[in-house]
Amino acid sequence: MKTHVNLYSAELFGGERFPIQKVAVQGAFCALLLAILVGTGWEWFRARALTAEVQEIRNRQNFALQSLVALQAENEVIFLQQRQAADSAKARERLLAELAQTRIVWSSLVREISFLVPGDLWLTDLEGITQEGKPAAKGGEATIRGVRLKGFAMSYPDITRFMSEMERSRYFRDVVLLVAEKSHESGRTRIEFQMNASLRRS
User: Fold this and answer.
1) CATH architecture of 18-202
2) pLDDT category, 184, cuts 50, 70, 90?
């Protein structure tokens, strides 16, 4: 029986066998690299989406804050108007109570003042005064020679216009401005004033 021994090199028959192990390693490496790239891309996409959501939340917060500030300012204006209305009502009540005791017909006078007051001027106090400019004592008609008006306006021209209207009225003369000072309330600047006006006697 013959025995054959292959003494030829493997290269003579077409080289080595197919390198399946090397290909498998390279494929696994490529798959891993692809998975890393896909994961990185997904994380980047999520990061951008989260950044957009955070920006949207900040925009909503800024809008809510601006709305709150506007609402507070509107509430301050409403509060100021209500306070002005209350002060004006109290001033009219005090004046009417005082004038009723002096037996002077003041209804026309109060009505006249309401027509003379500009839109940006408010009266907070009205009282009768004597010829010397002092508050009139409760008593007879002869003690009252004029009125003292207190209030505030948004500007000096509003006060000047009111004084001019008083001078042209058939009820008042010798209008004198006593005080005109700036003040601040609820973040707004206004001019507080006091003035005296003599009554025209028919």
Assistant:
1) 2-Layer Sandwich (3.30)
2) confident
